[in-house]
Amino acid sequence: MLLEGKKILVTGGSRGIGKEIVMKCLQEGASVHYCDFEVSPFQAEMDAAAIDGAEAVFHNANITDEEQVKGLIKDITADGKLDVVVNNAGITRDGMVFRMPLDQWESVLKVNLTGAFLVAREASSFMALRQKSGSIINMASIVGQTGNAGQTNYSASKAGLIGFTKSLAKETAKRNVRVNAVAPGFIATAMTDKLSEEVRAEYAASIPLGRLGDAQDIANAVVYLASDLSSYVTGQVLRVDGGMVM
Questions:
Q1: Annotated active-site positions, please?
Q2: Is the Cα torsion angle 21, 26, 30, 34 positive or negative in sign?
Q3: Based on the number of CB atoms within 10 Å of its own CB, is 202 exposed (0-12), middle (13-18) or buried (19 or more)?
Q4: Model pTM above 0.85
């Protein structure tokens, strides 16, 4: 098991990609704390996946609230341990920029970038100054590197997160804390399930590997960056996109 004995925090872990990350980490032997606005409907499945005394622990927390984030990290590190943080929580509020209200812009930046900053700030402080080890994994996107029409707010937040990842990696490397990002491409989710077969086929045709990715593909990348297999990897953006960006 690649993550045996590790303690991991996954933000936005109740559903979708976050849920798959939680499940994969549990299956690899980790104890996983996850935060969201409500407990996962898959909690029983998570409990069943936990191995050898590991557990899946839910925390009701808003990552854009500074005091809640401080309390979250304090609670999780009370026993003096936090090995991995996965900044997965994120939202979209798509629209063309010339019709985009300010609150639509700010809400995406607040969750996707400021929320990740708050979690990473508190976690990296513990990891770097007290534990002297750790791995922080930020969920970016290929649109943070390529841009995407109708997603100026989302693309800006993910581009910012990539720059944040590289800068934090440089700040923490000497204290044995690694910081990397995963950049998914088109991933099959509840949102893409609502698209017509024709549209899904068009998406797939634009991908060199010829298919949309799935949440397991992202979870596998996270496990790699969380594990000791990537002990010499920091400041990197791992694209999981079927070859869309080369």
A1: 154
A2: positive
A3: exposed
A4: yes
